[in-house]
TrEMBL record:
It is an enzyme of class 3 (hydrolase). GO terms for molecular function: 8-oxo-7,8-dihydrodeoxyguanosine triphosphate pyrophosphatase activity; 8-oxo-7,8-dihydroguanosine triphosphate pyrophosphatase activity; 8-oxo-dGDP phosphatase activity; 8-oxo-GDP phosphatase activity; metal ion binding. The keyword DNA damage applies. GO terms for biological process: DNA repair; DNA replication. Keywords: DNA damage, DNA repair, DNA replication, Hydrolase, Magnesium, Metal-binding, Mutator protein. This is 8-oxo-dGTP diphosphatase. Its cofactor is Mg(2+). The keyword Magnesium applies. Its EC number is 3.6.1.55.
Length: 152
């Protein structure tokens, strides 16, 4: 068996990110339309990481499951309704930001009622998987984009 020398890349990154931070749980959705495009939303001015594109979703409230949180967030942010049975967990981001550690399951969703609108003023874009790289996203999302591209 060939062993990889732990002298660079992930090995060094781990040494930099091992300090205790509050864990923030966020549930996010890759809404996929009939043409296989994925919906991205642009984070509005005034929020952290403003201008970057993200998967719709948000933080879990106390007592909520990730699916319940996502159904609520999709209704609040986009004005659409979906159900837990229409959500399939496909990936999970685990990323150390400076002030918190983000744990974010990503759910694929192909079935919902209503037409997504940016109810909080956010711009929306339906993006072909091969074009996802054209949209700057938070660092936590990079591995998710790679997984989605392979999946779709
Ligand atoms: N919804 C969503 N959030 C993401 C993604 N990538 C990523 O790092 N995040 C981060 C940004 C936020 O810190 C957090 C989501 O918080 P939120 O949507 O409920 O609330 P917020 O924007 O007001 O967050 P914040 O300004 O308080 O940090 O997760 C993503 O693809 N989708």
């Amino acid at each position: 068996m060939i062993e990889r020398e732990p002298d660079s890349g992930c090995w060094q990154a781990d040494e930099r990110s091992n300090t205790a931070k509050p864990l923030v749980l966020v549930a996010a959705a890759a809404l996929i339309d009939v043409d296989g495009r994925v919906l991205l939303a642009q984070r509005p001015e005034g929020k952290s990481m403003a201008g970057l594109w993200e998967f719709p979703g948000g933080k879990l409230h106390d007592g909520e499951s990730p699916e319940q949180a996502l159904i609520r967030e999709l209704h609040e942010e986009l004005g659409i309704d979906t159900r837990a049975s229409c959500l399939a967990a496909v990936a999970c981001a685990s990323h150390a930001y400076d002030s918190f550690h983000l744990l974010m399951p990503l759910y694929a969703c192909r079935t919902w009622r209503g037409t997504p609108r940016g109810k909080e003023g956010q711009s929306l874009a339906w993006v072909r998987p091969v074009r996802l790289g054209d949209y700057p996203m938070p660092p936590a999302d990079e591995p998710l984009v790679a997984i989605l591209r392979d999946l779709l």
